[in-house]
Amino acid sequence: MDVKARGNILGNIVPARYILVVLGSIGLAIVYGLKVNLSVAMVGMLNHTALKQNNLENGSLQNATNKATIDSPDQDGPFIWSSEVQGVILSCYFWGYFVSQIPGGRVAELFSAKWVMFLSVAINVLCTLLTPVMTELHYTALVCMRVLEGIGGGVTFPGMNVLLSKWSPPAERITMTALVYTGTSLGTVISMLMTGILTDKVGWESSFYVMGALSVIWCVLWVVLIQDSPEKQPLISIEERKMIITSLRGNSAKRDQKKIPVPWCAVFTSPAFIAILVAHTCSTWGWYLLLLDLPLYMKQVLHFNITQNTLSTALPFLTLWLFTIFLGKTLDWLRGKAIITTTTARKIASFIASVCPSVCLFALCFIENNRAAAVAIMTIGITSTGGLFCGFLANHIDIAPNFAGTLMALTNTVASIPGIVVPIFVGAITHHNQTIHEWRTIFYVTIGMYAIGITTYLAFGSSEEQPWNKVTVDNEVETKPLNEEKKTNV
Q1: Most buried in the list 96, 184, 200, 289, measured by CB within 10 Å?
Q2: Subcellular location, in the record's words (predicted)?
Q3: What pLDDT shows up at residue 395?
Q4: Which of 137-151, 329-343, 461-475 has the lowest mean pLDDT?
């Protein structure tokens, strides 16, 4: 072997690929946590009294009659941002997210996914620490910080997909991808809870300083413990390295991808890829509605104060995390027993992630202000969305492991459009009338998006390796064992 195997710093207890899974999951948790903390902190940043007065002056009597009377009001913040401004602030993250995906995915494939992930988190940490200062200057300065965070956040999924394509044995792929990508829900839980508590007890600025500072620890661990592939990792046993490399040889994955051009025409005419693209985009509409605008729904319709809002919004993402891990292990077990195929496993998970939230959103339209029922329904709906991490979101590696980063970048780029549109759409619909009647329109549109996505995926989705993934360049060099290649060079 080119790299001497010493085993990882935990000896024989934890395999190197599991360290990648843990740190990868935490990395996504950080990025998502720093993405959603503004959604919760904004409840404490806004001057709700002034905004309600503005609504009254603009003739929104209906909104005034629905204001909370059983809870003490939250302490007003310093900012008087209209619904439209709030929508822009929440959506601007995705402006940067949109433009960085494809370049980030290709850089991760051609150079280093490890450093792409590192820079992604580092940019988010720096911008988060600067957020309070920039917000005090003007909301446009906050917009700039969020756009930069989006640029960093946009490359995380393509970068992680490249790492997983090189580190995840096919027999463990559903579980490993589920564990890594559910870091997004774990980060959501932690971020919402921390942000809510810090905003309520200390001040809205504290959440950005505390979470940004803690994230620096991950940056150090990532640089020290993670490498781009098993071949480059010194902290791995010989047996584990051999097992991973051997298991991946069967899927035509080329270890050195610098000479492989992307077959763009074949990609965009592939039904399997189009199915992932449509499912990813439509499902993300619902995901970002729940992720970014759920705190506003809890405040505007159910009239929760900030502490109640935080707990009710965050806890469903904890059950999502647990459910996704259970679902991933179950599907891998069923595949191992040859009860279902990988394609079937992906479709089952995607079906759960689309149909269950749709039913729950439909139910929310008719419960009015029943808080307990609303929280229970939202918990079920959010929990079931965890299926997407075992479903189409992990499908790119199945159909084309050589281009896992680029394919994820392509679908995630299009799927970031709902992240831009949804907050603005919600702000426009609820402008001056923040009641269940307006939210019904929002829920119906979301149900329609879910229906389009899952119908397309069930019809055309596949986990079979696509012909255009197969590598013919330098094939004879690729198949030589490392020790024989080394002797040839000598």
Answers
A1: 184
A2: Membrane
A3: 93
A4: 461-475
